[in-house]
Amino acid sequence: MAFTKRSEATRNAILTAARKLLTERGYDAMTIRAVAAAVGVDPSMVMRYYGSKAGLFSAAIDVDLRLDQLQPVSADRLGEALARHFLARWEGELSDDAVMLLLRSASTSDLAAEHVRAVFATQISAAFERLIGAGTPALDRRAALVSAHLLGLALSRYVLRFPPLTRLDVATLADDVAPVLQYYLTGDLAGAVR
After folding, report:
1. Which of 22, 49, 92, 167 has a CA 20 to 30 Å removed from the CA of 177?
2. How far apart are the first and last CA of the chain?
3. Which whole-number Å values give the CA distances from 69 to 24, 81, 89, 138, in the listed order?
4. CA nearest 66: which of 147, 123, 142?
5. Which 8-state DSSP code applies to residue 157?
6. Domain limits at 133?
7. How does pLDDT run across 3-44, given as a tens digit for each residue?
């Protein structure tokens, strides 16, 4: 039992060090050796637990958008619900660093970019099927537009820190973003219903 607790503590320390390196120096600097040195273990220990740099990255950036927590609302309020959910996910009671680390890494790493695509493609598409119906015209296109808008907002507010966006309180920002998301979700996209 003591070995299991020690093993779990080591795994957690490795993930913490990997996240710290990702935050401070990006994907390229998050090497197996650098993580091992930060924790004070042999690099083979990191490899034993995570197999490779890609495995360590995937474990460190385990992103759950928690879209299952979105409560059903009327169709005309979906944009608002989604905007509020994502802002809470990024800076409210649901927040953690995983999404921001992923965004920072995605611009320099193909692996991170693929991870972003996979997270948004699978999680948003599944949520949309539940919220607006699997038979909705252009569902994939709608999910892609919402994803692009939300990722752009996150990048601009949290990574690039554009002053006009960082000065806005969460409620105002949600109110500003909601109509655009609503259009992507339920609007008559040009050519979507032909």
Report:
1. 22
2. 62
3. 31, 11, 11, 24
4. 123
5. I
6. 67-186
7. 477 788 999 999 999 988 887 887 888 899 999 999 999 999
